[in-house]
Each structure stands twice: as C-alpha cells, then as structure tokens.
Amino acid sequence: MAGNPFTLSFGIAPKQYIARTSQTEKIVESFLDTEPSDYAYIISGVRGSGKTVMLSTIAEEFDKKKDWIVINVTPDIDIVNAIVGHLYSQRGLRNLFVDAKIDLSALGIGVSIKNATPVYDMTVALESLLKEIDKKKYRVLIAIDEIVNNKNVKVFAGIFQLLIRQKLPIFLVATGLYESINSLQNEKTLTFLYRAPKVYLEALSIVNIALSYKAIFNVSDEKARRMANLTKGYAYAYQVLGYLYAEKYLGTKEEGDLDAIMNEYDGMLSEYVYEKIWSELPNMEKQIVTLLVKNDQMKIQDIREELNISTSQMSVYRDRLKRKGLVETPAFGQLSLCLPRFREIAYFWIE
Fold first, then answer.
1. How far apart are CA 227 and CA 8, in angstroms?
2. Does 7 score more than 80 pLDDT?
3. Containing structural domain, residue 267
4. How many structural domains compose the chain?
5. Which bin fits 337, alpha (ψ -120 to 50), beta or left (φ > 0)?
6. What does the pLDDT look like over 247-290, one tens digit per residue?
7. Which of 62, 253, 298, 301 has a CA that sits 20 to 30 A from residue 346's CA?
8. Whether residue 240 sits in one domain with residue 151
9. Is the pTM of this model over 0.85?
C-alpha cells in the first residue's frame, strides 16, 4: 500500500490537506504591498482547525522570495535574542552588518569590530540590524506558532510595536487559541494587537472535502459526501477520518465500511483534541456545553433560564464559545455544537 497521505500529528504539514487559499493570499498580498497597511496578522481557531498548516504555507511562500528573510520562533525562548542571532548569522547579511560597524560582541553575538562601539541592548541591536536591512530593501517575517501570554511574547510584542512605528521592515504572523490571544490583547501596553487583523479559521468546505476523499479513495459521490459530512468541515477530523480509512482500505479493492472505523474515529478525536478542549473550559461555558450535549440544539433563552444568567452574560459566553469554535447559531435565537461527533463523545463525560 502507498504511504498514508494523512497524518494525526499536530505541527506537521500533512501531505494531503485543503488549503485556505483566499485567507492565505490576503496575508501574503498585504505584506507585499509597497507601503503595507498591516505589519501583523493573528491566525486563530479551535485546536485542530489548521492554524499551523496555514502558518507554514505562508512562511514557505515568503521563504521562496529572495528579498525576504523568514524566521520561525517559539514562544518559550527569548524571541528578540533569537531573531537578532538569526539575522546576524545570515551569510548574505553578515558582511553588511560588519561594514556598518554593528558590534554585537557584548551580547555574545559575532566578534568585536575595530573602532566600533559595542551594542549592549538587544532592542538597539535589532533596530540597528533592521535599519541596515531596510537599506537593501529586504524584509523580515517572524512566524510564531501557538503564541501565549508569557514574558518572552510580551517583551517581543512590545519591541515589535516600537519597530513598526518606525516602519522598519519587520512583519509578524502568529497563530494562537482564542484564550491566549484575548489574554495578550488585554495587556495595556500591547494595544497594537487590538488593531492587528485577526483571521479566524472556520469550517472547511464540505464540497472540497468530499471531492478530496473521492479523488484519493475513488469512492462514490454518495460515500464521499457521507465522509465529508462526518467531519463537519473540521480540519483535524478530515485528517483523522482520512487516515483511518487509508490505513484500512487504501490500495485494496475492498469496499470501505465507515461504520467499522467509527469507534477509532471517536476515540482519536476524543484523545487528541476534545478532552483537552473540555478540560480547558471555564465552569459556566462547560455548563452551557453540557446542556447542548444533552439537548443538541437549544433556544438561547432556554439556556439562560436553565442556568439563571442574564441576556448580557449569555451573549458573552455565546461569543466566547463561538470564537473557540465550539458552537454555532444554526437559526436565530438557537445554539448548537459544531464540532463533529463532539456531542456523542462528550456524553460520556457529563453526569
């Protein structure tokens, strides 16, 4: 059997995925403008919605361009230090920095330069490097996956805010869960994050998923449609169902039986994503989800009355759950769960 084109691993771009072309192109084209109006984009969505794949696609697109330098960093390291070190180590830029007499030896980067005043501050170092890069018409893209509200990110975000005020050629694309991004935005010194455009990853097209399954597995239109509907457009479910079906039926002449893999499908969604989502829900949001697990679709008014909460409180909880990718409003005044098989799986967790 040929290798499985799907993957269960997070943080790895699968061989088979459905690109979010319009959203990706919007970010790329925005950064390529001669005078960009935006220097940062934040990609948000529920776990498994394809944030990392989209980030990787964008980074790879800019990595192909000769006048762009792409730097991937993680939030658990000194981000500014990592960026400065990466820029200074670039073979095509090192001589440029030396000729400009930017001496970073005091920071443990590079060597001492004769007749140059050493730089002792990492912010000044990054600003100096970017000014020289700007003279050569280069641009720098920083890519951060799963941004969180910690010291490293806050320090970098504050410095980034200063740099873009000077219109220096540094750009940011970061992914993150709604809770993390909201927490960062609430930092009083990071007001630019409120203005940074947010890209919320919603469900993939059911039609595109069906066409993909049909092409890979050579199944009927009816089966491809049924498979797609089982995913509800959730990117990770598309990978899990495709992976399980490929492991069992790809390369064989056997007619695939979806019912035969449903237990594994539910188990993987639960173990790899849903249990984590459930454990991170605050108490009131968990109570709302519990009601939806028990009743499927409910009137928002009925939820309010059941939990004894006000209209304004309910609006806040509803919006949070929507941003987290857990619920949708299928009709006016109604609320329901939107992740595939979440109701069937979560039923075993509630009392």
1. 17
2. yes
3. 206-276
4. 3
5. beta
6. 999 888 777 899 999 999 999 999 999 999 999 999 999 999 99
7. 301
8. no
9. yes
Tell whether the model's pLDDT for residue 297 goes beyond 70: yes
Q: Residue 143 maps to which CATH number?
A: 3.40.50.300
Enter the tokens of residue 66.
């000769």
pLDDT band at residue 2 under the 50/70/90 scheme: low
Q: What is the pLDDT of residue 186?
A: 81
Q: Specify if 47 maps to a domain.
A: yes
User: Which residue reads 């968990």 in tokens?
Assistant: 286
306's tokens: 């059941």
Alpha-carbon distance of 177 to 107, in angstroms, equals 34
Quote the mean pLDDT of the chain. 92
